[in-house]
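Exercise: predict the structure of this protein bound to heme C.
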Amino acid sequence: MIKVMHLILIATLITSTYADKYGRLLLYGNCITCHHETKSISAPSLQIIQQRYHEAFEDKKEFVNYMVDWVYKPSHEGSIMHDMIEKYELMPELGYDKDTLEKIATYLYELQ
Ligand code: HEC
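Solution:
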């Protein structure tokens, strides 16, 4: 019995680390061209986005779902950062599927 529990634990650890790495990879492959980690150059930095989202959404699910829906179809109405739209113009639609965006948003939620 103990062995089974161990296996489950190990499997969970492996898959969750894998999901983290994958989210990071997707973020760095697809978003970093415009969103620098700490500097806002052509778009708000990841740090600012993460901070604003944490201020707006306490719950992880709300944070992730809202970001997925918005990035899937960026709009003025849904934006929680109107000052950034004024400064940089509305983010273009990128055409990623929602699964991919969910991994990225989850990674951003957890990013320290
Ligand atoms: C071509 C440049 C570009 C790329 C690539 C890009 N963004 Fe953006 N993004 C912007 C700009 C400019 C803004 C600021 C204006 C705005 O909010 O629409 C922004 C704003 C945002 C916001 C704030 C939304 C709000 O409430 O206004 C989120 C969240 C975001 N981006 C997530 C992402 C994610 C996740 C990716 C990668 C999948 C990504 N962006 C890729 C340019 C980009």
